[in-house]
Every structure is written in C-alpha cells, then in structure tokens.
Amino acid sequence: MLNSNEIRQLLSELRLEGAFIQKITEHDYHSFTLSMFSKTEKAFLLYFEVGTANQHFCRTEVMRKKSARTQRFTQYLKANITGSRIVSVSQVSGERVVCLTLSHNDETRKLFFRFFSGPGANIIVTDSSNIILELLMRRPLRGEEKGRLYTEEEGRAWDEERFPVRPWSGSSFNEYLDRYYQEQEKAEKTEDAAEALKNQRDRELASLRAQIRDARAREEHSRDYAALKETADILSS
Question: For a FRET experiment, which of 4, 53, 81, 95 has its CA 20 to 30 Å from that of 117?
Fold first, then answer.
C-alpha cells in the first residue's frame, strides 16, 4: 500500500498534464488500466488498483488480462471519460488522495483516487462543483453516492520521516513499483495454485480412504460366507 510521499514521488515522475485518456480496460472489480497518449510521452499505460491490500497506481509496460464482464462504474468511465484531456493533476497535501481534472466536450469533470485503507478507499467522479456523478463503491453512510456533494479532504504537513519512500532501484519509482507488484501478483497466484492442488489432493485422499474403509467393512461382513453357504446347502439337501 502506498503512503502519501510515495504517491508524490510517483506523480513527480509522470507527465500527465495535457495527456489524453484513449481507452479504459477493466481487469476486475478493483483495478483497471488507462491507455494514455501525449505529444511528449506518446502512448503509455497507467495502472490503478483501489480497495485491496496491494492498492496502488503506476505507469506500467504490461496490459493485464481484461475482465469477462464490465461493471457499472467502468461502463460510465468508458462513456464519459474516454477521450478526456487531463487539464491538471493534484494531490492533497500529506494525504493519499489524487485528483485528475479532466476536460471533454466542453465539460469539466474531476476524477478522485483515494488510496486509503478499509472503507475509505474509493474512486469518485464529480462535476466541476464536486457533485458526485459516479463512483466505484457506493457508501451512503459516508455520504458517497450519486448526487451528493463530495467534500475534499483537508491537507496536512508532509511527514517524510514517518512516511518515507521505500528503498527502490531502477530507472524510476514507477518502474520499480510496477515490477514489484507484478512479481508479488505472480507469487500470490503460484501460492493460490499450490493451495488449490493441496486441497484437491486432500479431497482425493479422503475419498480413497473412505473407499478402503467401505471395502474392508464389506470384506469383514462376508468373511464367513463360504462356510455359511456350505452349511445352508447341506441343510437344504
């Protein structure tokens, strides 16, 4: 999970002002990729993941697998955000909140990313007056639903000592994070696959043990069958 200074470092490396959002690809409920284009950077990808233990964003070189079904929020983004130009990028001082101000068809929208832990995490789209138009996760008790006024978080002093940027290597922090989380994702998938195989093995072993117990019970039950049959044949004759 990113802290406020890591988010600031990521944003400092990106040149998002003036870039266009050409395409939006959903991967699952919590993650999607923006296909971007700018005159200076040309085509590039931005990956976002919110509301998970690994929530983060970064420039990426890999287009992840597309989800089988598109959720309501992504449908809204495709219909209303695709083709938008990023006018400005801002971060609430000392907080894990990023705002992209977008312009499209003479309309201004704001795209807020909240990389908070727990129920605070969300992605919220508002108009220029901060009226909520759509959001990833609807939370009425927090006032986060369509038509409500989104109250922006208050900033605080940057605290680099308490929230340092983690040690990193490579050409950029974006490149490092992209590699780090992809490797972590692969490791988690490998672990999940191993756990699934272990569970399948345990189920099959349990089934075989049950079959052996049943076979032994039948064997025990029919142990005196031949002698009893001989006696019965004698009595019958």
Answer: 81
